[in-house]
Design a protein that fits this description.
Two copies of one chain form a homodimer.
Chain A: E1 2-6, H1 10-22, E2 27-31, H2 35-43, E3 49-50, E4 61-64, H3 68-81, E5 87-90, H4 96-102, E6 111-116, E7 137-141, H5 148-161, E8 164-167, H6 170-199, H7 211-217, H8 224-233, H9 235-257, H10 261-272, H11 274-278
Parallel strand pairs in A: 1-2, 1-4, 2-3, 4-5, 5-6, 7-8
Antiparallel strand pairs in A: 6-7
Helix pairs in contact in A: 3-4, 6-9
Chain lengths: ~280, ~280
């Protein structure tokens, strides 16, 4: 079985490692825009062969793990060149646009739109590891448009990796993920920025930082090449939640200005119940 | 040697455990406003005896680990009742006000103002653990006002626990800590609030949450009883950094509205260098 992985970063690389572990006798082909990353992935034995356009037609499965602004063109191109039984799996963080653009392609039923809710703040082939997806959610969108035999293969594989599958409408996906992922990244990036601006003057400040700070700004280490396109593609939903977030911060600020610390206390206490929700997240 | 710990939560309890481990033959006395916490601390063997006002005069060291709005009154009261060789250590998260209020007490030189930059999002005696302070910063304020023999004892003990000591002006402390600790908590609490408000309508949203979200909202589990008084006492500094944080978020939002994703990319890329700074934080 020939498996191609396009984009050999954290996500693509980890899928390659998962295929190597879970699919007996598979041949792994890899492609990356960065020559350096490709070489690194070959050296780390994440993939075995260089995936070239001339090989597309011999792939049984292709996993597309590239920044979301490149996904659509590349997916349309790939569908044109693959054989009639190749499954193309997109694993990007936005789903509405890609699902819409694939809709009319004659090989639409060889395409599967997914979003693995897994990641770390690190990027590149060296960040990939086989256990990344274990126990993590995998969102499938419009899976009824994928050919049943291909879908069945994919579902089996994802379950073998240990992922928890759920189906979701692509527009709903993009709306919800803006809250639980995209907003967290903006909040973290801007927290990092605010503190770093201060640090221009006061180098000592970071000697005082503890694990709480490290935890809240962890995502500010994420790759801008991956995240700027996500923000662009999910702009509408993100602007809405960003507005709500800023409004909540403004309200908190106002309560502090009014010295209404009873209400400050109450707002925090209400939010404490998030621990119940977080209990289910690794 | 008799050591009293007032406030048997995460911080006080962990200091009690550290004393038990590192100070040979010490007798540990504990006090807590909550009868339940006191019983729990005795049961967990965090302390051995109930600390009563009638025992204050036989304490060699008292560690004051209570919410910052109660610290000043309690510290002034304690200094009145302790003997002439007792060391009173305050470990609260704000320092300017307490240093100012202690200034004129005749036993000022038996008082030591500190802030251990250590903690978790959990609270109460059951959250305490002996390794909490290992490798963590400890800020000392106006330690030159503490009697040299008492200060020397404290420094030795803190170093034995593995803390990294640094001296800082109390006003500077409060200003800096607003950035690297207090703002992180507000950012996290409001992120949790924003997402929970949404969750009222859409229960499914949390099934999609990953470890990135968990990391950024971790601090939203923190104790409001501890944090509301900190926000109140450090109001001026916090309002300043909160303004800067909101301004940064507004700027990011504007860039998105203008579809200026080159600049969005650039802002994130600049902030990426925070990873170098975070490398030094556990």
């Amino acid at each position: 079985m020939n498996i191609g992985v396009i984009g050999l970063g954290l996500i693509g690389g980890s899928f390659a490692l998962s295929a190597k572990r879970h699919i007996k006798g598979c041949n792994l082909y890899g492609e990356d825009q960065s020559e350096k990353h490709l070489k690194q992935a070959l050296k780390l034995e994440i993939v075995e062969h260089n995936l070239k356009p001339s090989n597309y037609s011999i792939m049984d499965v292709i996993i597309l793990a590239i920044p979301v602004d490149s996904v659509i063109d590349k997916a349309l191109y790939l569908l044109d060149y693959v054989n009639d039984n190749t499954l193309l799996i997109d694993v990007g963080s936005t789903k509405a646009k890609v699902c819409k653009e694939m809709e009319l392609h004659p090989k639409r039923n060889q395409f599967l739109a997914t979003h693995p809710i897994a990641g770390t703040e690190f990027s590149g082939p060296s960040a990939a590891f086989v256990a990344l997806f274990s126990g993590k959610p995998l969102i499938l969108c419009e899976s009824n448009k994928t050919r049943p035999d291909l879908l069945e293969w994919a579902i089996n594989w994802f379950k073998n990796i240990g992922m928890e599958l759920q189906e979701m409408d692509p527009k709903e996906h993009d709306k919800h993920i803006a809250y639980v992922s995209h907003l967290s990244h903006i909040s973290s990036f801007m927290l990092g920025k605010t503190v770093m601006e201060k640090e221009q003057d006061e180098k000592a400040i970071f000697d005082m930082a503890g694990s709480g700070f490290a935890s809240t700004v962890r995502l500010a280490k994420s790759s801008p090449s991956m995240w700027a396109p996500i923000f662009e593609q999910n702009q509408e939903n993100i602007l809405e939640v960003l507005d709500e977030y800023i409004a909540n911060l403004e309200e908190f600020k106002l309560l502090m200005e009014q010295q209404n610390y009873k209400e400050v206390f109450r707002k925090m206490q209400q939010t404490n119940s998030i621990s119940k929700i977080l209990a289910g997240i690794n």
